[in-house]
């Protein structure tokens, strides 16, 4: 009769620790792989921005610039990148400010007067789901009649219309997490409605306002279809300016890389410093479900 030798507790514990270590290593390896997939295009864009034209088409291709240069930044800025960044900054900043100014009172009414998952919330959010190709022809005809074609005002109106539903929905979900007792205490103390908004609701809603503002700014900054159809030669946003690099001249990838880096750097910096507010706001969104 042969005896069965069971593993000792020490060896079993060592095996468990080994499996846990392998699991942690595998998890970190997957995170590094996903991060590399996201950062590789940005790294390649950055390296291309510093390559002279002669190195862009060499065989075999060079990864690091052999003779780094800043000419791509100056030339890309001069041939349209500078105007594109300036116009995008004007239009996206004003439209974002309007979205927040108009969206906060509407979000407060939606949060306090309507149920969280009612028809009104869905209706407002569904306006943001509308494909841009659907209203663009109507906007084009309307803007021609109202002399808003190829103007900053027209594009600001469109971007405000495009992002306002999302801003209202985000802020409403955040305001719902603010206890009504704060407002009741302010009213008992005799605070008028404008002091209630300024001293109570705005400070408590600051993370949600920052989140909604960042998202509205990014969407307006990256929008292409409305800018292409509703503007001509006076207003040229950055996506339209980058597209013109292909349409009217042989594409210079170094200039495209340089302007692309200049364009995304401010958004990356703002998103990095506002990441706590972003995480807190999305945590509120998910916690309300």
From TrEMBL:
It is a multi-pass membrane protein. PROSITE patterns: ABC_TM1. Gene3D superfamilies: MetI-like. It holds the Pfam family BPD_transp_1. The chain crosses the membrane at residues 29-50, 89-110, 122-143, 155-175, 196-221, 253-273. InterPro entries: BP-dep_ABC_trans_perm, MetI-like, MetI-like_sf. Keywords: Cell membrane, Membrane, Transmembrane, Transmembrane helix, Transport. One of its GO terms (biological process) is transmembrane transport. It is found in: Cell membrane. GO terms for cellular component: plasma membrane. Its main location: membrane. Residues 85-274 form the ABC transmembrane type-1 domain. Belongs to the binding-protein-dependent transport system permease family. This is ABC transporter permease.
């Amino acid at each position: 009769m042969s005896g069965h030798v069971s593993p000792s507790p020490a060896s079993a514990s060592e095996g468990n620790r080994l499996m846990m270590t392998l699991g942690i290593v595998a998890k970190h390896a997957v995170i590094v792989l996903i991060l590399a997939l996201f950062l590789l295009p940005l790294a390649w864009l950055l390296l291309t921005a510093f390559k002279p034209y002669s190195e862009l088409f060499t065989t075999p291709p060079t990864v690091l610039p052999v003779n780094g240069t800043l000419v791509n930044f100056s030339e890309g800025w001069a041939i349209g990148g500078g105007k594109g960044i300036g116009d995008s900054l004007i239009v996206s900043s004003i439209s974002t400010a309007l979205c927040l100014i108009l969206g906060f009172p509407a979000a407060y009414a939606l949060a306090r007067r309507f149920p969280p998952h009612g028809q009104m919330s869905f209706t407002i959010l569904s306006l943001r789901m509308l494909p841009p190709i659907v209203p663009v022809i109507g906007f084009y005809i309307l803007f021609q009649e109202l002399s808003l074609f190829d103007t900053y005002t027209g594009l600001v109106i469109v971007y405000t219309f495009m992002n306002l539903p999302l801003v209202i929905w985000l802020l409403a979900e955040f305001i719902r997490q603010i206890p009504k007792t704060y407002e009741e205490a302010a009213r008992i103390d005799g605070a008028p409605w404008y002091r209630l908004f300024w001293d109570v609701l705005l400070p408590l809603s600051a993370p949600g306002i920052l989140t909604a503002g960042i998202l509205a700014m990014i969407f307006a900054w990256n929008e292409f279809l409305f800018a292409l159809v509703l503007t001509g030669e006076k207003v040229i946003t950055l996506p339209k300016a980058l597209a013109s690099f292909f349409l009217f001249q042989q594409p210079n990838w170094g200039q495209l890389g340089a302007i692309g880096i200049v364009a995304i750097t401010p958004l990356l910096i703002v998103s990095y410093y506002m990441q706590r507010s972003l995480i807190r706001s999305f945590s509120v969104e998910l916690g309300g479900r």
